[in-house]
Design brief:
By secondary structure, the protein is mainly alpha-helical. It contains six helices and two strands. Strands 1-2 form a two-stranded antiparallel sheet.
C-alpha cells in the first residue's frame, strides 16, 4: 500500500471503529502516515501493526514514558503515537501540553 491508501484506510478505521469525527479522523490519519521526527521507523511499524490488528498496540518509547503510559493517562492509542512523534520533534512543548492535560 502507499501513503494515500494507508491514510484512507486509517481514516475509515478511526471513524468507524474508534468513534472519531470526520475531521479528527482525517487529521489523525494524516499525522499517522506522515510522521515528521527524524527517527520514526518504530512509529511506522506500530501504526502498520495496529492497522492489521487493533489489539496489537506496540509500545514505543516517548522520553521517560512509553506509548502505553500515555494510553493509561487517557490518550487513545493513535493519539499516543502522534504525541510520540511530536515529543521527538519538540519535547519541551509536548511535555508542557501533557502536564497541562493532567
Amino acid at each position: 500500500m502507499n501513503n494515500a491508501t494507508d491514510e484512507l484506510l486509517i481514516e475509515r478505521i478511526l471513524r468507524e471503529e474508534c468513534g472519531y469525527s470526520q475531521r479528527a479522523a482525517e487529521v489523525t490519519a494524516h499525522d499517522l502516515t506522515h510522521f515528521v521526527a527524524a527517527d520514526h521507523d518504530d512509529l511506522d511499524d506500530a501504526v502498520a501493526r495496529w492497522v492489521r490488528d487493533r489489539a496489537d498496540q506496540a509500545d514505543v518509547a516517548v522520553g521517560g514514558r512509553s506509548v502505553r503510559d500515555l494510553v493509561g493517562l487517557g490518550l487513545a492509542y493513535p493519539a499516543a503515537l502522534v504525541f510520540a512523534d511530536w515529543y521527538r520533534c519538540d519535547p519541551v512543548t509536548a511535555s508542557r501540553a501533557l502536564a497541562e492535560r493532567m
